[in-house]
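U., I forgot to send this yesterday:
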Amino acid sequence: MEGREQGEPGAQRGAPLIELVGVTKRFGGRPVLNGLDLAVARGEIFTLLGGSGSGKSVLLKHMVGLLRPDAGRIVIDGRDSARFRERDWVAARRRIAYVFQGAALFDSLSVKENIAYGLREHLALDEAGIDRRVAECLEAVGLAGIEARMPAELSGGMRKRVAVARAIALAPEVILYDEPTTGLDPANARRIGQLIVSLRRELDGTAVIVTHDLDLAFAISDRVGMLANGRLVAVGTCDEIRASRLPEVQEFLAGELEAPAARTGGA
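Result:
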């Protein structure tokens, strides 16, 4: 990806929509998140970088209540989620959609039924209304007319876009993307990046992305955070992250820039 693909900047749009304050999470006694602080502004595209096992996906799952912190607070639109009952999380998940790393489509359901699943759960739409909404979502991701196909008939890039179509079906305010370009060729990775930007603009929404894809991060992000040792060691604009002299940042950037050549045997 070359240059910035983003629409109007979103980082200065107001008070934080999602805040993590002193969040700690341990697995088997090992801290994965260690007193982490993060504030995501309404309307921005915020990208989290970090090595494998650094806790990026763990952090993302805390934002939507799939994981709960051992310590610290998660504040969603000014409300402390520690006070949420399950019905509050159900309401929050209508506002915060999650696009899983592997797309997580139901293999036994058609594309239409995958996208319609949340509509049937949360909205009182008749079948004609569901058909219209599914068609609108597929149109938005550039896949009009594939309602009857099964996930096994789709390429990796198409599966990712169907997962995004399912995520936007309830018109969420926030979309969380877990490694959205993993396993995709450069052309499809660019397509996903452009889709994230266009959806932010069309939905007037917020996007949080976890990735190790530097091209994606530096092409579309308003701000970037670097996760290491369970904390955000750096947060800033793309230019500020590139210019950072912190060893953790420099080592990650150098390693990720070298990795594609190493994997393909290139120079």
